[in-house]
Amino acid sequence: MNEHVTMTPRHATDKPLSLAVLAMGGQGGGVLADWIVSLAEENGWMAQTTSVPGVAQRTGATIYYIEMLPARDGKAPIFSLMPTPGDVDVVLAAELMEAGRSVLRGLVTPDKTVLIASTHRAFAVSEKQAPGDGAANPLVVIDATDFAAKKTIAFDMEKLAVEKGSVISSALFGALAAADVLPFARQAFEATIRAGGKGIEASLRAFDAAYARTKDKPAEKLSAIPEKRLDPLPASAGHAELDRLLARIRSAFPESSQAMLFAGVKRLTDFQDPAYAGEYLDRMAALHALDRQHDGETKEFSFTAQAAKYLAVAMAYDDVIRVADLKVRASRFDRVRREVGARDDQIVYMTEYMHPRMDEICGTLPKSWGLWIENRPTLFKQLDSVVNKGRRVKTGTLFWFLGLYAVSGLRRIRRGTLRHQREVAHREEWLDKATRTLGHNYGLAVEVLACRRLVKGYSDTHARGLSKFDRVLSSLPLLVEREDGADWLRRLRQAALLDEAGTALDGALKTVATL
Predict the structure, then answer these.
(1) The Cα angle at residue 414 between residues 412 and 418, in degrees rounded to 5
(2) Whole-angstrom distance, CA of residue 6 vs CA of residue 464
(3) Which of 107, 161, 164, 374 stands the most exposed, by the fewest C-beta atoms within 10 Å?
């Protein structure tokens, strides 16, 4: 036992102290469990840890279960292998939804359990694969933890750890030390980290920050999730051409849409160049003029605001060139290194899973070349049999990096590609429907613009989204004269986002046909 450590009052030891750690792959749950066991053993206690791997996401969410108790009369205690619902002293959850799962499993109880949780989200595969917003409602978890635990310590420990150059396990360990639920002083926790021998300084920085944050403000009151807001317009964009576009936004558009317009300009400059962003403002100026003609000012220029968002989305479509560009950026390599906690002397390889089709190849070619191949079905099929195969691409190797870098360089000829010509034609057809509707039904025209949300991605994802988009807007003639037309089109769009196959949309379209 470390004699130099001042002991804090400890829990009763008539039964083991029990802790459950819920963490996903890459969050250091195993390290945290080992730290807790080492902490107990170095201070004269006996401890045991077991783990039950899960199948949530990445390498899976795992429950690490620890029990600890001082030895008595030279006899070793007998520990349990699994947590018993209603009998866990401390639950540490490395993500908000894991905290919710611990409540559902009965591990958190109001008369016994201290819940220590990070409030950030690591979205599950089931949430990401939904066509629309598949994110689970965090308010349900927040409301549950408000009454489920005896005490809750909750804040964004992931953000804090990343800022200190460490991983979330260090922050959770700091919060555990500050919670005063274990009979060991802070110095003992720090000594455990130092004994680990890896990433000591970064781990201690995250530990210290989480300890201080817990003592200062144990829990964030998350009665509501703050809305994500756009940054206000800056005084300068830091680039002469962007500054000219920024000045144009200020002078020609209503204040309510300026932030979104500037976000669109930045996105399209990144996608192509400032001239392309200028084309976006040209088109927006024409749409805003129509909005004014149809009394848009009394409706807070809702049509202009919606167009500012979705026209930028439509113009910055996902093509092969864009995908290649994003994969070879230095910022992406740096981000991945930070996420996996790689040291400066370590090499990190990323494996991309790609499945190109001949459709994407033709779309990347100049319009005349792409059409020439597409108009020869036999040739197209033969070429597709060669390229339409799944590939594992290691972007860290010279061969694949240079290949993707070369594809990303095709942005210089993007305006002449077959894909771009088709995107422009489809975009103008969509805007034509919206502007023709504007004079008859303002609210419905705004919803027509919002339907662009259905079109996203590339390859099969893009094809499915495009099909749903066309099917939703096929109902437009039935809705244009109805006062509740906007509501019905919104319902159709929401139905299209419910499932990949479009089953919900089929039912909604049948309902609209009977109106």
Answers:
(1) 150
(2) 64
(3) 374
Q: How far apart are CA 470 and CA 137, in angstroms?
A: 30
Single-letter code of the amino acid located at 504: A
Residue 287 CA to residue 370 CA, distance in Å, equals 32
Alpha helices in 116-254 (DSSP H): 125-128, 138-148, 157-163, 168-178, 186-196, 200-216, 240-252
Task: Identify the weakest region by mean pLDDT among 4-13, 313-322, 415-424.
Answer: 4-13
- Taking the C-alpha atoms of residue 91 and residue 115, their distance in angstroms, rounded to an integer, is 5
Q: How far apart are CA 219 and CA 371, in angstroms?
A: 60
Burial class (CB in 10 A: 0-12, 13-18, 19+), 503: exposed
Burial group, residue 129, by CB count within 10 angstroms (0-12, 13-18, 19+): exposed
Whole-number Å distance between alpha carbons of 299 and 301: 5
Q: Are 109 and 20 in contact (CB under 8 A)?
A: no
Cα–Cα distance, 260 to 449 (Å, whole number)? 15
> Are 5 and 185 spatial neighbours (Cβ–Cβ below 8 Å)?
yes
CA atoms of 380 and 334, how far apart (whole Å): 39
CA dihedral angle for residue 484, residue 490, residue 491, residue 493, rounded to 10 degrees = 150
Tell me the C-alpha to C-alpha distance, in Å, between residue 492 and each of 4, 156, 203, 434.
Answer: 68, 37, 50, 16
Amino acid making up residue 292: R
Whole-angstrom CA distances from 245 to 108, 115, 229, 233, 262 are 54, 50, 21, 12, 8
Q: Is the separation of the CB atoms in 348 and 396 below 8 Å?
A: yes
Q: How confident is the model at residue 11 (pLDDT cuts 50, 70, 90)?
A: low
Query: Which residue's entry shows tokens 């300009």?
Result: 265
Average pLDDT over the chain reads 87
Quick one: CA dihedral 312, 316, 318, 324, positive or negative?
negative
Q: Which two tokens stand for residue 277?
A: 């962003």
Sequence length of the chain is 515
3-state helix, strand, coil in the chain (%, to 5): 55, 10, 35
The one-letter code for the residue type at 321 is: I
Label residue 222 by pLDDT band (50, 70, 90).
very low
Kind plus residue range of the DSSP H or E element containing 266: helix 255-271
The residues, ordered by sequence, that sit 6+ positions from 413 with a Cβ below 8 Å of its Cβ are 366
Task: Please state, in angstroms and rounded to a whole number, the distance separating the CA atoms of residues 134 and 497.
Answer: 9
pLDDT tens column, 366-393? 999 999 999 999 999 999 999 988 888 8
* DSSP β-bridge partners for residue 153: 116
